[in-house]
Amino acid sequence: MLIAAFLPPGLSSLWGEEFFYIHKAGDQYRILSTVNEDVYLNRAFQYRTQIVNRIAVRVLAEREGVGSVEAVFQTAERAQTPVRAQALERPQEMPRQGGQRPPQRGAKVPLGAFQWDKDYESRFERDRLGHITIGGAYFMPVVRNVPVFPGRGLAPGDTWTAEGHEMHDFSGNFGIREPYRIPFTASYRYLGERLWQNEPCPAFEVRYRILTEPPPAKGRAWPLRIRGDSRQIVYWDAERGRERAYTETFRMIFDLSDGTTIEFRGSASAEVVNPEEMNKAGIVDDIKKELEEQGIEGVDVEAGAEGVKITLEDIRFEADSARLLPSERAKLDAIGGILRRYADRDLLVEGHTALAGLAENRGPLSLERAQAVAGYLEGQGVRAPDRIITRGAGADRPVADNRTEAGRARNRRVEITILEN
């Protein structure tokens, strides 16, 4: 979401390079980040997790250098080791992480596809130097006013400082309903050119430390003391005039009012992606033609907001389980062959159940069935695990009448969406 402009080369040689934000109405891009994080409770290691964040950004308008921006933030996560101690509900939406609750004590954590967690929508304004103006109800972006530029030419080695803050969603874990603000002072250093993926580009180092004892908040528990630090290297795409990538190492420690201490340690990397516009109508036509030629029935294809959705109706599992029946493998093999043609796009696999059985079982069962399909596709080499997200919808979105067997069969479905990354 960061866009930098440079003075012409002649001016740069006299006064250094001056960075500032440029917003152009209609600009669209995505930021994809991966986080590897260790979580500790009362100084005891709990589990290691990997998080993928996808951020879709669009500039709505620009006026006198101020851009009006809208963005959708999506997080997905998978635990890499099982919890070995008590259940831990963790602070949501740290700068580098998603907000999924960790598994309960003793749970077996499946590796493979990432589990979708939550989407956040946001709108804000940003001025030329990087100051953000945003409504109080928005949780995203988490890190705000980073970077803030000094408004002068910079030579390699030049430094400056600026105020910033993090904003967190503690509603699910601590019952703190309002976005929770944590201030800091960031220190910057212009590094000059650095290599990113073997290409030189301007880079900045950003560091900040947090040490605060905030006032009590309304909730089940709240932070009594917060300690943390972050070191980022931000790489700029001079040709496009916006952020290209960043890397980060971080540590955050929360001493809570209920006597517990939660700590997060990890590293992150992110890259701005400028994908070609997805030809959804053309992809839908091509897939329908392929399905017809192969004689595959019970499959529907349509374009949607997230991409192109392939719906497998009445996909068969063993009763009340997520174990695929052998008869379904041929269908999934055929679908996998189609999905390989769009290897540059990530996948979302979403499970649905009919309105049957116990209500509390439908959500977990639908997720487990989505994970089973995702796992099969991974096993066939259709996508790597970090290229598939799974989601369970239970019986909340029926497409047919649950009062009939035919309708329930249609509602027992798995949807595979080729995402517009």
Brief sketch in words of this structure:
The protein has 421 residues and is α+β, with helices and mostly antiparallel strands. The protein has helices at residues 9-15, 171-174, 280-294, 329-339, 359-379, 405-411, and strands spanning 28-41, 44-63, 66-79, 114-126, 132-134, 143-144, 159-168, 180-196, 199-212, 223-237, 242-256, 261-273, 299-303, 307-313, 347-351, 388-392, 413-419.
Commentary on this structure:
The protein contains six helices and 17 strands. The protein has 421 residues and is an alpha+beta fold. It has two domains: 9-273, Lipovitellin-phosvitin complex, beta-sheet shell regions, CATH 2.30.230; 280-419, OmpA-like domain (60s Ribosomal Protein L30, Chain: A), CATH 3.30.1330.60. It has a 17-stranded mixed beta sheet that branches. The two termini are 16 Å apart. Residues 1-13 and 83-110 have low confidence and may be disordered.
Entry keywords:
421 residues; alpha+beta; Lipovitellin-phosvitin complex, beta-sheet shell regions; 2 domains; 17-stranded mixed β-sheet; 6 helices; 17 strands; disordered N terminus
